[in-house]
């Protein structure tokens, strides 16, 4: 006896048969007519994109550890979604893309998501028009946008219509860029237009086991003969390091929850401030942990050259220690993050001496420039924390365009119109100081810790300041060697041994003299005194008072700042 194949189903076999009534409650049933037929057809059409999908297609998504678009929507909000533009044709034209408005924590948010269970989420002409209309609505109503991208690209049978659909969506999204913020989640395997479109957004979030890129591994193999895995070509590790992805997370749920968390720090549009959030964390809370961190670092054997993680300082300043770092996998020598101070959203841009002494390289400069530009457009104040020995030198950096990258960072700082404060933690040297939000580049306030070492150059500057003394010392080395050799030979030491001993003694003497000059240089020039006397620094602040001083000054500047769209020319910066 052959066994009957059991097919999976979403229906509960014990549930009573579903029957949809179109009568008014309490109304006596009568013979149905054209009205009821029309209602039944309308109901079926509304349910068609969900009910017409086979359980096999849904299982395929789940087998690949992916959710359906409807499941993803339920992660974003518990509220019923308002699905717009339900133009699903007889062949399900347009059904592979869902567009709507969600209520997320009381805020209206425009959302779109590819439905991979229908035509692999591919784009046809209908989809492009739907997306463009959604983007235009978001821009007109001033509401943020979340995209859930999971598409095989253009729908081939649609011909050029699929390409026109992408082009229409590209154009509409570009026109609302800088008007409303957008967060793009990357799910599944996206190539071509499926990558271009989301990267037009403000932020991109990519989970593990996903791909997006210009072309897939198959095209790379056929064109270049190069074998490469999707992970190595366009996975989260690749895009996280390059900055193409702003956040990399574990899975789809992590991506959607990260999107909701990030949204909490973003304004609805460029005409308003980010949402204020009442806090029970006192603004005058003493930041003793910062004092402990700096004390342990600077009293260590390496003294003022000891690296430390600046994110600890950011954490201590923020309300309840909560902050949200952007591009955490890229250029760790700089930290860019959103946080709250006294309930107000603020952007943090900080050099991180724990990595490469906090030196600014090409990646750090572009990372900072991108973050500054976003904060500037969307009325978010910025607190800069400086602790860098300068721009990273070397042939590789010059070949990669450090001059252009540094200029991009400088331009983004000069253009800032939102309230901005500079806090100098320790090192602030040369061109890095000159291009890092000081008073001449437009800072509203410049503060410094007593540990500040502000100078034209670092310890190497002694070569210029004390060049005459150093010349005499180095000239004296030759005489000391000669004298030492003679003294040792007279004492009965062999000439070779006498020479070696004399040279070592002279070298140690020179090293000790240069160390004294280093200390003298640090004491005379590498300190905040001159900058304070010249007005380059407004005032010194103690580590334990950082939250209070920064918070009170930020509140002052925000009281006199009016949120508005940018009116000036939008400069091209890279």
Automatic annotation (TrEMBL):
Its EC number is 6.4.1.3. Residues 289-560 form the CoA carboxyltransferase C-terminal domain. One of its GO terms (molecular function) is propionyl-CoA carboxylase activity. It is an enzyme of class 6 (ligase). Residues 32-278 form the CoA carboxyltransferase N-terminal domain. Keywords: Ligase. The keyword Ligase applies. This is Propionyl-CoA carboxylase. It comes from Geotalea uraniireducens (strain Rf4).
């Amino acid at each position: 006896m052959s066994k009957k194949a059991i097919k999976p189903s979403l229906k509960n076999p014990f549930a009573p048969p579903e029957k949809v009534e179109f009568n008014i409650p309490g109304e006596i049933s009568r013979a149905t007519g054209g009205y009821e037929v029309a209602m039944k057809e309308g109901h079926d059409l509304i349910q068609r994109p969900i009910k017409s999908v086979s359980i096999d297609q849904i299982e395929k998504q789940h087998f690949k550890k992916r959710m359906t678009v409807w499941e993803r929507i339920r992660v974003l909000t518990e509220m019923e979604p308002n699905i717009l533009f339900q133009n699903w044709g007889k062949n399900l034209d347009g059904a592979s893309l869902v567009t709507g408005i969600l209520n997320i924590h009381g805020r209206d948010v425009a959302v779109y998501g590819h439905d991979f269970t229908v035509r692999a989420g591919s784009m046809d002409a209908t989809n492009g028009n739907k997306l463009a209309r959604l983007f235009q609505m978001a821009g007109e109503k001033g509401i943020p946008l979340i995209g859930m991208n999971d598409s095989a690209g253009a729908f081939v049978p649609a011909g050029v219509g699929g390409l026109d659909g992408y082009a229409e969506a590209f154009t509409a999204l570009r026109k609302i860029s800088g008007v409303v913020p957008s967060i793009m989640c990357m799910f599944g395997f996206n190539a071509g237009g499926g990558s271009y479109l989301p990267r037009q957004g403000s932020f991109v979030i990519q989970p593990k086991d996903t791909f997006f890129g210009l072309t897939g591994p198959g095209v790379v193999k056929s064109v270049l003969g190069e074998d490469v895995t999707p992970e190595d070509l366009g996975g989260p590790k690749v895009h996280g390091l390059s900055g193409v992805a702003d956040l990399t997370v574990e899975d789809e749920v992590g991506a959607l929850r990260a999107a909701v968390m990030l949204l909490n720090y973003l304004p609805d549009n460029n005409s308003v401030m980010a949402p204020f959030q009442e806090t029970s964390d006192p603004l005058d809370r003493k930041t003793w942990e910062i004092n402990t961190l700096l004390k342990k670092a600077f009293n260590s054997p390496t003294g003022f050259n000891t690296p430390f993680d600046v994110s600890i300082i950011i954490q201590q300043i923020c309300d309840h220690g909560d902050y949200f770092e952007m591009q955490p996998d890229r250029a760790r020598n700089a930290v860019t993050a959103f946080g709250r101070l006294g309930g107000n959203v603020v952007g943090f841009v900080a050099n991180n001496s724990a990595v490469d002494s906090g030196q600014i390289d090409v990646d750090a400069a572009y990372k900072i420039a991108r973050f500054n530009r976003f904060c500037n457009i969307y009325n978010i104040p910025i607190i800069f924390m400086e602790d860098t020995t300068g721009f990273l030198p070397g042939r590789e950096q010059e070949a990669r365009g450090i001059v252009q990258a540094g200029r991009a960072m400088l331009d983004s700082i000069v253009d800032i119109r939102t309230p901005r404060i500079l806090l100098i933690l320790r090192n602030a040297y040369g061109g890095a100081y000159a291009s890092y939000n000081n008073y001449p580049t437009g800072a509203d306030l410049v503060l410094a810790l007593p540990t500040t070492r502000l100078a034209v150059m670092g310890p190497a500057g002694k070569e210029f300041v004390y060049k005459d003394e150093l010349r005499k010392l180095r000239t004296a080395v030759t005489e000391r060697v000669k004298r030492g050799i003679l003294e040792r030979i007279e004492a009965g030491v062999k000439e070779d041994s006498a020479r070696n001993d004399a040279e070592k003694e002279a070298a140690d003497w020179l090293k000790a003299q240069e160390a004294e000059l280093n200390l003298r240089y640090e004491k005379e020039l590498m300190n905040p005194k001159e900058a304070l006397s010249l007005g380059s620094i407004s005032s010194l602040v103690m580590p334990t008072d950082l939250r209070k001083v920064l918070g009170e000054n930020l509140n002052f500047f925000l009281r006199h700042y009016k949120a508005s769209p940018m009116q000036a020319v939008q400069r091209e910066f890279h």
